[in-house]
Structure formats: C-alpha cells, structure tokens
C-alpha cells in the first residue's frame, strides 16, 4: 500500500511540474510574439526619418503632415510606454503615414523619385509585417488565456500568478466603413 501512495505522489508531482512548465512556455510565447511586434515597430521607426527627408525636398509646404509624422515617431521613443499606449501611438502613426503617402499624388516628381518609392515599399512591407505580428500576438494570447482558464492548469495558474493577457484590438476609427469615392 505504501508503494502505491508513493507512486501516486510522484505522478502528482510530475503532473504539477509538467503543467507549470507548459504555462511558462505559453507565457514566453506571448512575450516572444510581443517582441516580434516591437521589432517591426522599431524597423518602421528607423525608416521614417529617411522618408521624411525625401519628402521634404519635394513638399516643403506640407509641413503639417511631416511634423505630425515626426512628432508621433518621437513619442514612440519615450521610455517606459506601456503596450496599450504604444499601440495607440502606432495606430496614429499609421494614419499619418497614409497621409504622407497621399502626397505623392500631389507631387508628380515625388511619385517618380526612386528613393521615395523604395522607402514607401519598405514601409508598406513593414506595415504588413506589423499586421501579421499583431495577429500572431492575438493568437498566442488566446492560446495562453485558454490554457490558464481551463482545468487543471487553471489551478496551477492561480497558485503561481499567471494572469490573463489582453489582446490587441482595432481602434474605433479603424472599425468604421471605408468610403470609396470616385
């Protein structure tokens, strides 16, 4: 009878350790997927000054748009921004970049400029990577949250302080219908 109790205790301990390790793995995946977003945001952050300098030469009187892009970029450089604030500023920056790209229609020389076209393509690719990274983050957070909310790992999660994570959501502006006018 003693061997059965010891065997059962060993099994319980091994299950506890295994469950804890799985929770750690999921939490690390959430952090890694956030880091992927951060990498793409940094890439965009580094590309913006080159884009702004290229546009400045062609659109000297479009200072408002350029200033907005630079100001939002500089806000992202502030230390200790939480994830929610960082994503809000990045969403605003995405809108400002769309306005900047709209300038190329008003300036045919800018439209033909190879540097501008190359930078625009790089930023477009970066925006796509940011969108993909956001999707990956939300998917990873969903799996993590499911893991910490289901039996039996929910017991381990509460004992060891594994908390629910928030997913990234679209802003109210992004949820509005797109108006196409000809």
TrEMBL record:
Localization per Swiss-Prot or TrEMBL: Membrane
Pfam families: LemA
InterPro entries according to UniProt: LemA-like_dom_sf (IPR023353), MamQ_LemA (IPR007156)
GO cellular component annotations of the record: membrane
Membrane topology: Single-pass membrane protein
UniProt keyword terms in alphabetical order: Membrane, Transmembrane, Transmembrane helix
Recorded superkingdom: Bacteria
Tagged with keyword Metal-binding: no
Family according to the record: Belongs to the LemA family.
Protein's recorded name: LemA family protein
């Amino acid at each position: 009878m003693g061997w059965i109790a010891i065997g059962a205790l060993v099994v319980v301990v091994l299950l506890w350790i295994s469950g804890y390790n799985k929770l750690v793995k999921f939490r690390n995946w959430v952090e890694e997927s956030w880091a992927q977003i951060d990498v793409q945001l940094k890439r965009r952050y580094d590309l913006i000054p080159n884009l702004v300098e290229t546009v400045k030469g062609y659109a000297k009187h479009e200072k408002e748009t350029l200033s907005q892009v630079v100001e939002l970029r500089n806000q992202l450089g502030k230390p200790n921004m939480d994830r929610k604030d960082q994503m809000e500023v990045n969403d605003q920056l995405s809108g400002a970049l769309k306005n900047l790209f709209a300038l190329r229609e008003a300036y045919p020389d800018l439209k033909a400029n190879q540097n501008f076209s190359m930078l625009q393509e790089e930023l477009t690719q970066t925006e796509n990577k940011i969108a993909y990274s956001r999707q990956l983050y939300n998917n990873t957070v969903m799996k993590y949250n499911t893991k910490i909310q289901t039996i039996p790992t929910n017991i381990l999660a509460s004992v060891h302080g594994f908390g629910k994570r928030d997913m990234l959501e679209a802003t109210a502006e992004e949820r509005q219908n797109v108006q196409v006018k000809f």
